[in-house]
Amino acid sequence: MGAMEQQSRWTRLPWQKLVSADASLISEDSANRYCRQYFPSKSGGKCRTVIPCLGDACDDYGNISKSYMNNTIRTTKYTLLNFIPMNLFEQFHRAANLYFLFIVVLNWVPVVEAFQKEITMIPLIVVLTIIAIKDALEDYRRYKFDKQINNMTTKVYRRKHHMYIERCWKDVQVGDFIRLSCNEIIPADMVLLYSSDPDGICHIETSNLDGETNLKQRYVVKGFSEQDFEVNPEQFTSKIECESPNNDLTRFRGFMEHNNRDRVGLHKENLLLRGCTVKNTETVVGIVVYAGHETKAMLNNTGPRYKRSKLERRLNGDILWSVVLLLLMCLTTAIGHGLWLNNFAETPLFFVPEPNGEHISPPLAGFYMFWTMIIVLQVLIPISLYVSIEIVKLGQIFFIQNDLDLYNEKLDSTIQCRALNITEDLGQIQYIFSDKTGTLTENKMVFLRCSIAGVEYSHEDNAKRLELYQDVDSEDMKYQPQISPSPQSALNVESKFQHDNQNCTSTNIHKSGDSQEGLKKQDIHCLRQVAFSSKMEKEVVPDPHLLKKFELLSSQNRSLNGFIGSNSHEIAYIMDFFLALAICNTVVVSSPTEPRQKAGIPCVGQTPLKSFEEIKQLFQKFSVQRFSSPLPNLNDKPSPSGSSSRLNIFNKMRTSTPTVVEEQESTSESEKINFEKENKSSCQEKSQQEMRSVDATFSFSIDPHCGIPVPGELNYEAESPDEAALVHAARAYKCTLRFRTPEHLTVDLFSVESLTFQLLHILPFDSVRKRMSVVVRHPYTNQIIVYTKGADSVIMDLLDGSSKGKQQKRIKEQTQKHLDDYAKDGLRTLCIAKKTLTNSEYEEWLKDHFLAETSIDNREQLLLESALKLETDLILLGATGIVDRLQEGVPETIEALQKAGIKIWVLTGDKQETAVNIAYSCKLLRPSDKVFILNCTSKDACEALISQILKIIEDNDPGASIGHAPNYSLVIDGKTLEFALQKSLEEMFLNLTIKCRAVVCCRSAPLQKSQVVKLVRDKLNVMSLAIGDGANDVSMIQVADVGIGISGQEGMQAVMSSDFAISRFKHLSKLLLVHGHWCYTRLANMILYFFYKNLAFVNLLLWYQIFCGFSGSTMTDYWILIFFNLLFTSAPPIIYGILDKDVSAETLLQLPELYRNSQASETYKTSTFWWTMLDSFYQSLICFFVPYFIYADSDISVFSFGVPINTSALLIILLHLVLESKSLTWIHAVLLIGSALFYFVFALVFGVTCVNCNSPSNPYWIMEKHMSDPVFYCGCILTTVVALLPRLVYHCIQNSVYPTLIVKAAQLDKLTPEERNREIEDWKFSQEACCLLDPVDFLTNPSVDDSVSLKECSIISASCSLPLNDSFSMSIEDLGDVSVTISDGIGTQKSSLRETPADLPSAQLSQPDSASTITNC
């Protein structure tokens, strides 16, 4: 027997033991044999084994867990012993530091020594010390935080004490049993074995990990939840096998094996993650499976993100050019020195011979001089530039984070800068890739319309309410906690909570005599606002026509026969539709002030209808059956809802023998009646006992049919806004989800009865299936029903194709029509369907599903295949339309970004019509656009389509060939995008998108989003920005050059993966157009200034070599030489990089076109770099030779000659900065004057005190003599004026004769507000007029006459010849179905290609849907 066959037989074994008529046919030996062969135990590799260090397992514990990490965490980089070597090792990874280390070592070589050895080391030591102090402070903060976390305490079971005792987190080991109370933080990843909740549920808050404030439910492992007592660790004999540690927070695979070889699958719902907080649960017990750095939280703690900015990459290239320039200077000096020595016929007397009496030959002396000049001219490489850049970026981030315009008052949050080194990239963005839901929209889903059984219910009153609704009530924001995750967010939050165990809303009820008012005061701070539950989202106004039909169900005056008359079919659909809305979800039901109660099985003894049999008959009559199957027998005997018809081994591993399905179905009618009486009496008795224990301060509403206390107010905690909207809609029609447990769902249905469905399975939503399903057993009909909701693109393909019923076909056609209408109105659409399973069908499916649940390898794939088998042959119930409003300011933001030259792509998973509608609403698409809509079903069709569209664009708009086609846009669906992203088509696809102004990708999966961003970024070599708010946007955000997360209602996963986090899409305009422009311009100018001042000063030393025989001598004291760049001129450029402002924020926002300057890197280009270098050469020549000619033929000493040169150089460099600054503040003045004064003070003090500091040179009293000489002052002034005059003249000519857009905008800031606004309006008008005349010519030649008349823009009718014509024919075989649409935003013109065996006919234009015009400018 093969291994696979043996595994399959083993998976059938538990099923056969439970449901077989003769379970004894399977012996225990055979069971053990298959168990031993299935999933062999592994201690390493892909799996790990976990056993407790208790009882008989102590001997094996050491061998198994010796390689597992303990729970101690250490995020520090250094220790006291290794700090200095490790920090130096890291710092010398920088090329600049290595270069200066090389200079220091080189200066210790005697033959090339230029300065005193100690002096050469000063710049390097200063830089290394500053960075080391910064790193030490950061690491010390991490050390204190680690110590705080490791010393937190928790209750760990110890065999020695036979009880739980307090232990530090660092002492926790894999296999330990942990006991936690409410509001305690989970110390390690552990499998849940016990919960004080009566249904085996543990509520946790995962905001520490993913930022989501909604409570999540975790379940006790099957087989433990029905225990009424706490698990005894010493009696725990099972072992756990699970996957190796990984950072996937959404996955956990493994199984628990008992002594009898039975195995139970473990899922993420059984795992409590480190860093989460226990909520609303008094006590939980679990066993640790991952500890310390192996926990998922720590594996996700990757630290701060590091990206290289585009400007930094360019800087590194120019540093290399500086190195080349340095080598040329040194080579020139070496050659000159050798030639100078060679000119002497005899050895000069001033030449010092070697110790052996010989003299160095000229070539060798030139070689030595080369290395000496490397030391002398070392300042050319700006060592302080990197430190200055870091300081400038910190200053820029400070001002960004403190911008009040980026502050959200409702959320009490501002922008978060999580990447500290790419601020300048914000000013160079060329492409923006945006999600739609939650990014462009509010992500506040409101139920607006629905279609049931082909009948549309418009909910006009609800639509009117939404239109008039003004979201001024910020109650939904008032109590929402703020989460600002840092790079160590998985750890930081743990320190926020120090075992806060008071005021816990758990299953315990505080017994006190306080009044109700006092209780409210006590608990008001514990109220936690639930996401997706604002007033706008919760209040749904029912449709009056649909409400009338519900009255038939709740009417007490109609007989049963009348009740199920002619409307029975439609009412059946309505019932199932709203039942699906209420239960097909993962919503957690909670109450803000009341404890959770165990969901009771509703009694059926007291109902508004006649008997239990009538209720059964009602649901059987109203159930929607598959047309291919016969109607069920009304005389079937259902099992009571209180009995366990679910197969227990797949829900809980019960110790008692479970009841089999056959026995349940054979229950006699008398037993049902007895059950009704017993259940009623027991339920009432239980209710009375519970009410006696409840304090009077709590108010309950009592179910009159059973006496179960139910909370008066319910909170629905959903994982997505769609789920919340649908549950709120069902509640508006009195189909209220009341309770949820791992086994049951209780729904108050139409005020008729509380129905408790047995929850068999939940097949969650995923991006592959694009749907979710729940499998339940109906409490009255005993049928197994599958309710499914999902995207219409997948649900419609899963409908029962064998059905010949005209009614179902009509429903499908009508529903599809309604879906199209919803999508055109911009609504989010979902289809609702159901399927009824027989017991045999369910048993057959369950066999394969159990195999998937208990597997470790390929579990996701097996579960997917299992879901696909179940979700077939569905019956369509209806569809929903949910509105998601645009965020405030989105249209204006997109319009401004497009004017700034940024191309915007919207990548969404929504329906095509919905995405297009939203694109028009947010002004991404314009009414004048020609929109190409690409939908095809094969790769060949996609290739032919794109080729034809490119030909159309080139034929009708030749200017588009250069990449500018502002009147074309593209819409592409997910299937076509999959073809377009293939290697053979990606270049053609990109060529098409370049010619389009905007692109909308519909039905795109998360993986496709990241693929699109990577393709555009790499192939087009552009700066990309991705923005999103959900977990499905994380991959896209991480791939882009700049990732921005929106802290919306879908948690903080996008924020935690982003470089910057904002709260609203509209903030993107100021972040890019203002701060992005400023950051890039400031930093680029500062870098150019650094290159300029370093080269200008180094050239002074080079010119002096001409007069000293290229001997490497200097006319400046070594201390002045070293401190010139390190101290005297270092502070002003830093302030220049932080505070300089070329254009005001108001002007930048009103004129987005100004962003193109930074986008095109106009400030820092190759040409500007070399012009700066040439200017520095000129200024150095003036700075050296003007003093040279002034002091010619004088007896001035060398150092006295160097003082006016150094002073003039300092003044020139500082005043050069004044000329380049666009705005000067008192801070600039203080630093500029302070730097000059510091130089003079230092020179004066140095000349007095340091007489023999640098023997044999003597700087004594040199500066003092010059300060008393008028020639010194005149020479410095003359030198400064002559050196700066060309740059001053250049700026004057440029600003007056050839002003740039930036210069023009800067002039506007000098006007009065009224004049400024008037000039800006004229500017905008002229820009629009030029674009209307010829958009392509305007973009390529901006000097078009501004006086063009708007009347020159021609308007042609829709009946004119459009790009698609008879020439649109293809000879490619097997293209498949293709649809091409050209839309003008109002009407559409379509062309279709259908597959034929031979060839394809030419595509013809059909008439537009409505009379419309196309604006063709």
Describe this entry's structure for a reader.
With 1417 residues, this protein is an alpha+beta fold. The protein has 48 helices and 39 strands. The strands form 8 sheets. The chain has an 11-stranded mixed β-sheet with strand order 14-35-34-33-15-29-32-31-30-37-38, with helices on both faces. Strands 17-16-28-27-26-25-24-23-22 form a 9-stranded antiparallel β-sheet, with helices on both faces. Helix 6 (117-150) packs parallel to helix 37 and helix 26 runs antiparallel to helix 27 (859-870).
Weakly predicted, low-confidence segments: 1-44, 470-503, 505-529, 556-566, 594-616, 625-711, 1332-1417
Q: How widely separated are the two ends?
A: 76 Å
Look at the helices and sheets and give the structural class: alpha+beta
Q: Which percent bin holds the helix content?
A: 40-55%
* Main sheet: strands, sense, barrel: 11 strands, mixed
Outline, from the CA principal axes?
Answer: globular
What is the strand content?
5-15%
Roughly how many Å is the radius of gyration? 39 Å
Using DSSP, what is the number of strands?
39
**Nearest-integer average pLDDT:** 74
Concise structural overview:
With 1417 residues, the protein is an alpha+beta fold.
Secondary-structure map:
Layout (H helix, E strand, L loop, with lengths): L2 H17 L8 H10 L9 E4 L7 H8 L17 H9 L3 H13 L9 H34 L2 E6 L4 E6 L8 E5 L7 E7 L5 E5 L1 H4 L4 E5 L19 E5 L10 E4 L5 E4 L4 E2 L4 E3 L3 E8 L5 H4 L10 H33 L19 H15 L6 H19 L14 E2 L13 E4 L6 E12 L2 E3 L2 H9 L6 H4 L10 H4 L23 H8 L11 H4 L5 H11 L5 H4 L4 H16 L4 E3 L21 H11 L38 H5 L3 H25 L7 E2 L6 E2 L4 E3 L3 H12 L2 E6 L3 E6 L3 E11 L7 E7 L6 E7 L1 H4 L10 H19 L3 E10 L1 H15 L5 H12 L4 E12 L3 H10 L3 E5 L4 H10 L8 E7 L2 H18 L11 E5 L1 H7 L2 H12 L3 E4 L4 H15 L3 E5 L5 H6 L2 E5 L6 H4 L3 E3 L4 H39 L12 H11 L2 H9 L5 H6 L4 H5 L6 H25 L7 H23 L5 H24 L12 H6 L2 H27 ...
Parallel strand pairs: 15-29, 15-33, 29-32, 30-31, 31-32, 33-34, 34-35
Antiparallel strand pairs: 1-8, 2-3, 2-4, 4-13, 5-11, 5-13, 6-7, 6-12, 8-9, 9-10, 14-35, 16-17, 16-28, 18-21, 19-20, 22-23, 23-24, 24-25, 25-26, 26-27, 27-28, 30-37, 36-39, 37-38
Helix pairs in contact: 1-2, 1-26, 4-6, 5-6, 5-10, 6-37, 9-10, 9-36, 11-36, 11-38, 19-23, 25-29, 26-27, 28-36, 30-32, 36-38, 36-41, 36-42, 37-43, 38-43, 41-42, 41-45, 42-45
